[in-house]
Each structure stands twice: as structure tokens, then as C-alpha cells.
Design goal:
Blueprint lengths: L6 E5 L2 E9 L6 E4 L12 H7 L3 E5 L15 H14 L5 E6 L1 H12 L4 E7 L25 H12 L3 H5 L8 E5 L8 H10 L3 E5 L7 H4 L1 H13 L2
Parallel strand pairs: 3-4, 3-5, 5-6, 6-7, 7-8
Antiparallel strand pairs: 1-2, 2-4
Helix pairs in contact: 1-8, 2-3
């Protein structure tokens, strides 16, 4: 364990850093952060609420935090990392919670490996359809970024011209799914969440009005209650 309380695993030649809390029994919960953050972003009421009932693991995605910055950031790379992470920890099936970029990784994983997802929570997720107009590939900011800027570059290209299977295969997600939107304060089209839910066999949308894109930060107690209630359902 590092001085920052992180542990590491290696999968596919990549070192992944993560934080763990909570019970030794119960269905594990894996938390996937948004672009530019790391697993520390989840610390707060959600961790406290989950930890009494579940083992909880917050991963630093490749290119972020203390995980390796390998320069290759195809979404399939992130999906493979998550699969390898679960394998290394001996987790056959998990609840996966993702925010923004992390939520896209989460639902692409759930498409590819539906048998390994118990439940799925997608906070302010993005619909992977071509953007019109496309986003500009950004120049790096001055100074040293807190994450590998190449993640942002490659994400923008994939966001502009996504693989059609990412949208077409939403119906392959068999896990009960909760899509959480931040309402009018979000920069994401909230209707997209409803369109995505309609394509999934067992999904619904919960809007926390006024929360914006950072729901779990702006409304931590409401977000935590929504997740805990969802996980407690039969």
C-alpha cells in the first residue's frame, strides 16, 4: 500500500492503482471516476454509505492518478483494464458505478461482459453517437496537468466519431441500470439519458434537478440515497 493509501495490480502490462474500503462480504462495488480525476474523487458520503454493506474499490483509470500513463487510450483499453482488474481481485460479478467518462467505460464493459455486472449506475453519462458539430481536439493547458492530456485528445476523437456498436449494443446490457442526470445545470443533453434507458432492457432515469454534471459532489446525500435505494431493491 502506498503512502496515499492506494494499492496496485498489474493487468495487460498496465499497473492500475485503486483504493478499497468496507465490508469483506457482499457484492463488490467498483467506482469509475470522470475524465481528469482519480479514485479519490469518490471519497465522501457514497463511500460511507456503501462500505457497511459492500467491499468498495475506487480505481484510478489508466492515464490518471497513480495508475500508468501508457499513451494508448482507446475505450476498449479501458474496458480491458476493468476486466483485468476484476480478474486480479477475484471478483466474478460487481456493481459498477461510473461518472461521466467513467460511466461510458462502465456501460461499454456491461455490453461486453453482461454476466459480470450485478447492477449498473451511470451518473451523467454520455450517449456515444456522432457529435454535430464535432468537438475540437484540445490543446494541452499550460503547466503540468493532473492526468495524461492524451486521454482527453483521444477521448475527443472517439466522442466525435464513436464506434456504432457502442450505441447499437445498449440492449446487450442485462443488469438493472440507474441513469442519474443533473437536470438543467448539466452541459449534457438530458434527453439522451432517456433515449439510452429506452434501449436497455431494465433501466430508468433519475434526475436530481439543479445538481449539474457533478451530481455526487453537488448533491452528495441525494446521490448516495439514490444509489443505496437502487442497490437495496429486490
Amino acid at each position: 500500500m502506498s503512502e496515499n493509501g492506494t494499492q496496485t495490480v498489474r493487468t495487460g502490462g498496465i499497473r492500475l492503482s485503486y483504493r478499497s474500503w468496507g465490508a469483506e462480504v457482499g457484492v463488490p462495488v467498483v467506482l469509475l471516476h470522470c475524465l481528469g480525476e482519480d479514485g479519490e474523487d469518490w471519497r465522501g458520503p457514497l463511500i460511507s454509505g456503501l462500505a457497511g454493506r459492500h467491499p468498495v474499490h475506487a480505481l484510478d483509470l489508466r492515464g490518471h492518478g497513480e495508475s500508468d500513463w501508457p499513451g494508448s487510450y482507446a475505450l476498449d483499453d479501458f474496458v480491458g483494464d476493468l476486466r483485468g482488474f476484476l480478474d486480479e481481485l477475484g471478483i466474478d460479478k460487481a456493481v459498477v458505478v461510473g461518472h461521466s467518462f467513467g460511466s461510458v467505460v462502465a456501460y461499454l464493459f456491461a455490453q461486453e461482459h453482461p454476466e459480470r455486472v450485478e447492477r449498473l449506475v451511470l451518473e451523467e453519462t454520455g450517449a456515444m453517437r456522432p457529435l454535430q458539430p464535432p468537438q475540437q481536439v484540445p490543446e494541452p493547458p499550460p503547466g503540468t496537468p493532473a492526468f495524461d492530456w492524451e486521454v482527453k485528445v483521444q477521448w475527443t476523437r472517439q466522442r466525435n466519431d464513436p464506434d456504432p456498436r457502442w450505441w447499437d449494443r445498449l440492449g446487450a446490457i442485462t443488469a438493472p441500470t440507474l441513469l442519474v442526470g443533473g437536470g438543467d445545470g448539466s452541459h449534457l443533453p438530458q434527453q439522451d439519458l432517456h433515449l439510452m434507458a429506452e434501449r436497455m432492457p431494465d433501466a430508468r432515469v433519475l434526475t436530481i434537478d439543479g445538481a449539474g454534471h457533478l451530481v455526487h459532489e453537488a448533491r452528495p446525500m441525494e446521490f448516495t440515497k439514490a444509489v443505496l435505494d437502487f442497490l437495496a431493491e429486490d
